[in-house]
Prior knowledge:
- The complex is a heterodimer.
- Chain A contains three helices and two strands, in the order ββααα.
- By secondary structure, chain A is mainly alpha-helical.
- The two termini of chain A are 38 Å apart.
- In chain B, α1 (3-24) packs antiparallel against α2, α7 (135-151) runs parallel beside α19 (377-400) and α14 (281-303) runs antiparallel to α19.
- Chain B is mostly helical.
- Classes of the chains: A mainly alpha, B mainly alpha.
- Chains A and B meet through β1, β2, α1, α2 and α3 of A and β1, α9, α11 and α15 of B.
Amino acid sequence: PPAHSHSDWIGPPDKHSNLRPIIFYVPPEESALERRLREARQEAQASNQRFWARHNRAFRQEKEEFIYSRLKAKGLEMRDESGQKATLNAEEMAEFYKDFLTKNFKKHLQYNRDWYKRNFRITFLMGQVALVRALRWLRRRKKSVEQ
Amino acid sequence: MSAARRCCLLRALAGFFVWRLRNTGIPQIPCRFVHLHRVANDRLITFQYFNFLKRMLQQLDQEKKVVYKISPVSPVHQSWSETSSRNELREVKSAAETEDSVIPVGGESREDRRWKEMKVQLDDLPGILARLSKIKLTALVVSTASAGFAMAPVPFELTCFLFTSLGTGLASCAANSINQFFEVPFDSNMNRTKNRPLVRGQISPLLAVCFAASCGIPGIALLTLGVNSLTGALGAFNIFLYTCCYTPLKRMSIANTWVGAVVGAIPPIMGWTAATGSLDAGALLLGGILYSWQFPHFNALSWGLREEYSRGGYCMMSVTHPGLCRRVALHHCFALIGLSTVAPVLDITTWTFPIISLPINLYISYLGFRFYRDADRSSSRKLFFCSLWHLPMLLLVMFTCKKSVLEKEDKGDLRGGSHEMALEIRLP
């Protein structure tokens, strides 16, 4: 993002986590409240990034392993004669999807709880910051009108 | 930077943006009107893309390195006609793909790779809010509520109807916005939902919540004060059910599908109570029809999304209990036949309704059976697409077979058959 910009910038989705990274703008006269908001957002972003990158990588890895083990059981290789990657059909994959979901169920419950708490906190802080800014702007207008 | 280079840059950008605006501005409707829509859009592009170009050039002035990267791509044609701009795009795309440039090249994927400023652009705001509130889904919800209103056995009142439709629409916008607010990281990970406004950072969560409040509160107030308190209460309950029950439940248990079906069944009930002011059997029957419809519709859709649901952590029947998924869809197809037969018993429609609706109900049941037996992608898609036209057609047939209010009053007042006939002949 350009150096003179006064707003946050959001980027393309990350390869591993599919989340879009945000570069936060730090204003020179950042108040304590605004700093808390920015830090909360940075922390949430980092935590989300860690979770999803790890989770998606585990998914891909386990999927590969599952396909490999199934193909081996059937006596096939990972790549057939034409060099194409051999895949299993949807029904066979369904078993893997079911297993993966049940295995990660508790992890998701924990993550959901965290995410909801973080989301509410960040939005509440945003509301507070917006309110403070609005009051400041109104006060400034009153002063300039009086002058 | 030389003037000649600037010229080429301008022309390249113009070509790219013509292509981009043409392709990103059009919604994905699979109908023949898209062609006409495209032709109409071409006229608009000339105004839009000049403004866009102005904005992009202002940004580019600062991004000097972008300018230098464009130079290997500059041997580009000067004409701005459709076909040549498409060719340019293909040339540039192949050239740009090798380098990881920040060029605003046309095509959604390239636009996506750019870093974007997180500032609300006022001219984009209506489109963003439309996507936030899932405007198409809202329109469908409002039409089911109007169907409920139309089926109620009372004389039609236009103001009441408009208030109900508007109130239901606003409530639905609010519920959808809150749903997207809750689901940002999950939506980013699923192909179907990764282009939502909150995921792309086009709007802040605070703004989404404020929008939801500013839609929901007037919507419910309109329903409670302008229509009746029962409809308002149902609207508020539906928002609560969708945002606080269905959305979190999606990640906790497969029961979410049943809760979601209730959410879908409530709007026609709201339409009915708005017209009559009371919750009678007719309302529940309409609600029941929509409740049963949700299962073949959703279960068929979720069958193709099993991988994404599994990775995203969504507890759906299609992933964890596939047999149950198909069974439930089939059972509810049969239930639709049953409910259509009950309609004339409750005096909502004449007996022609179950007869006329039997073919379409049998067809969806047949597709439901095929889905149950074959359990593959093609049968699930067939069932899903059938459900899309099945519901509007069923509601339309129901409306045309609606028992006239006058007829019912006659049958209630008079006992003698011939007397009835005389009256019926007199009335138009």
